[in-house]
Specification:
This protein is α/β, with parallel strands linked by helices. The protein contains 19 helices and 16 strands. The strands form four sheets. A five-stranded parallel sheet has the order 3-2-1-5-15. The longest helix has 19 residues.
């Protein structure tokens, strides 16, 4: 601990966002950066606590006191080595993680000014790329092959660890590029896709093979695993092969592809879309893909209603502004979160469920809570508004989930574009052969990028343990094919 009194004299300083009037006209990253001097000052605020709750809160087990100390001392290479000992992709978490470690920071409890761990780790990894600390490392191969199905954060983390442990890794991805929700769900203004491309090039240089537009199926079943249920499933062709018998082990990291729907009257109207339909298409447009006017989903000149109060809904708000919307309203069926730093229901060091205002909200948005959606209204097949009703939640006398009670009269919110951002359904899986491992959102349901990465690394450890000295003949039940 280089400066034990820094937290007493140096206040938390965040890099902040680009001005609203500037950023809403492009999809460049909204977050700015501090210079090296200020970044080292921020790192000096870490108190190297005797019981560092930041370790406990981080799903990856990151050790902020160690790499913050190295950063404060200007030892950037050591900081990079300490950071990547637990985190394979700090350039991702440094941009999109909600920083569970910061909420568990002792300085957050005492002063509500936690150490800027997320920004610090992003600064460290960017310096490592800039200074050339990161170079391809090709490990000695152990002769065993592992297939990873899904190139999202969980699949990438599993592939990276397995490759570094000497396994020959092939990653199968149903989309045209790697990243999963990092690429197709998170807007460029939060995570520039060049950051993902840079990491994929490094992984390829280290020997990982990526195969795109490859779709996972269960043999003799109609529904595929890893694509939305609404997509038409193409039949397996003669090039298909049995994954679990072609590789020593298989890791399934296909995420949660099925969005939660809203089965109410008017759902068929044109202009009602899942959030990811908008977000994924916009990211593809920025990557150079073209869509016909009929296919294009755009908020330009429209009144937009976002149903769902989470991060995906926030991403829709920011995207709608950049597309030139007339207005944006966001509604949430749950009550308004408490304001401030502390949450009585989730006291420190747990992550507080407090009101969150994102960069997208700052750009302009009407936000409402305790609103239930009743019906989509339309004219000539196109959505024109949504009938909603204010509700309140009352305790259930029988226990369990509170009861939703209507309050007041229904009203209509004008909308030309409605985006459903209500989360995703946890996928069901059949019985797999014993050399198949499921991780990330595919195993646990939709969660954070950092948790998906942690799950992917844990799956890689299980694969390594399973394959260490074991070569079993497996039956052909529930064969997995590509």
């Amino acid at each position: 601990m280089g400066n034990p009194k820094a937290f007493l004299s140096i206040h938390r300083q965040e890099a902040g966002y680009r001005p609203v009037h500037d950023r809403i006209h492009d999809f460049g990253e909204v977050e700015q950066t501090l210079n090296a001097h200020l970044r080292r000052e921020q790192a000096s605020r870490c108190m190297d606590c005797g019981v560092p709750f930041c370790h406990w809160a981080c799903p990856l087990g990151n050790k902020p006191p160690e790499w913050n100390d190295a950063l404060y001392k200007g030892e950037w290479l050591l900081a990079y080595q300490l950071l990547t000992a637990t985190n394979p992709f700090p350039e991702f978490t440094g941009r999109v993680c909600p920083a569970l470690c910061e909420k568990a920071c002792v300085l957050n409890l005492v002063e509500h000014e936690p150490t800027t761990n997320r920004e610090d780790e992003c600064a460290i990894i960017e310096a490592a790329f800039r200074e050339g600390y990161i170079q391809p490392q090709t490990p000695e191969r152990n002769g065993m092959k592992v297939a990873v199905v899904g190139a999202g954060p969980a699949g990438l983390a599993a592939a990276d660890r397995l490759n570094k442990r000497g396994f020959s890794v092939t990653v199968f991805e149903k989309d045209e590029a790697a990243g999963g929700l990092l690429r197709y769900g998170i807007p460029n203004f939060k995570l520039n896709k060049a950051v993902i491309d840079r990491r994929i090039r490094m992984m390829e240089a280290e020997g990982i093979e990526f195969r795109y537009n490859e779709e996972l199926r269960m043999k003799d079943e109609e529904s595929p695993i890893g694509i939305p249920a609404t997509e038409k499933t193409a039949p397996a062709d003669s090039s298909s092969f049995i994954l679990h018998s072609s590789f020593n082990a298989v890791v399934i990291a296909t995420g949660t592809p099925t969005a939660r729907d809203l089965d109410i009257p008017g759902r068929h109207l044109k202009g009602v879309h899942f959030a990811l339909e908008l977000l994924a298409q916009q990211n593809r447009v920025l990557a150079g893909m073209e869509f016909s006017p009929e296919e294009r989903i755009t908020a330009k000149g429209k009144d937009v209603l976002v149903i769902g109060g989470g991060d995906t809904g926030s991403d829709c708000i920011g995207t709608a502004h950049r597309q030139g919307c007339r207005s944006v309203t966001q509604i949430e069926i749950m009550p308004r979160p408490v304001e401030g730093h502390s949450d009585p229901q989730n006291p420190w060091p747990n992550f507080p469920r407090t009101l969150k205002t994102t960069s997208s909200h700052e750009e302009g948005c009407t936000r409402r809570w305790n609103i239930n959606t009743l019906e989509f209204l339309g004219k000539e097949g196109k959505v024109t508004g949504v009938k909603v009703q204010e509700i309140e939640w009352k305790p259930n006398p029988e226990g369990g989930r509170p009861l939703m009670v209507a309050k007041g009269k229904p009203e209509i919110i004008k909308a030309d574009l409605v985006l459903l951002a209500m989360g995703f359904l946890k996928p069901d899986h059949p019985s797999y052969p014993e050399n198949v491992f499921v991780c990330g959102d595919a195993a646990n349901g939709a969660s954070l990028v950092v948790r998906a990465m942690a799950s992917g690394m844990e799956a890689a450890r299980k694969v390594e343990h399973y394959l260490c000295g074991r070569h079993n003949n497996l039956d052909d039940n529930h064969d997995i094919t590509i």
